[in-house]
Amino acid sequence: MREATSLGHMTNNTTRLDHVVLWVADPVAAAAFYQTAVGLEPLRVAAFMEGKVSFPSVRVNEETILDLAPKTFVERMRMLPGAADSAGHPVNHVCLSLPADAFDALRARLADHGVPVSDIDHGLSGARGDATRSFYFRDPDGNIFEARHYDD
């Protein structure tokens, strides 16, 4: 029995994931990887290169982005005691949920860019239940991503 969810009733008054900050060696190169190999839209790259913003980002969807923070930014991470210690310690992985055709396109795009991918897993549990298919890949900075799709 599935629990009731509010997936179809999202408004600005619901809790959602806004962004994840990834530590990267070269934010411009990272943005290029996410644009060319993953197919995500880069944001603020020119402004970063001009020194107008501290880091660029890439858009996952209309409400979620990945910030690409340079490891040299560590001294500025003072929002909590010990926050700077997270530099170089990526999260275990970030999962991107895609429609089936986009899942297949991503796997092909990563292969075209020589990015190693794991075998396909089936039935791994996530926010929307058990995924139909999933696989893992790593960005050039060592951040691990899972790509998955669910049957709708």
TrEMBL record:
One Pfam family hit: Glyoxalase
PANTHER family xref list: GLYOXALASE DOMAIN-CONTAINING PROTEIN 5 (PTHR21366:SF14), GLYOXALASE FAMILY PROTEIN (PTHR21366)
InterPro entries reported for this sequence: Glyas_Bleomycin-R_OHBP_Dase (IPR029068), Glyas_Fos-R_dOase_dom (IPR004360), GlyoxalaseI/FosfomycinResist (IPR050383), VOC_core (IPR037523)
Gene3D superfamilies per UniProt: 2,3-Dihydroxybiphenyl 1,2-Dioxygenase, domain 1
Organism expressing this protein natively: Streptomyces bangladeshensis
Protein name in the entry: VOC family protein
Ranges of residues in domain VOC: 16-150
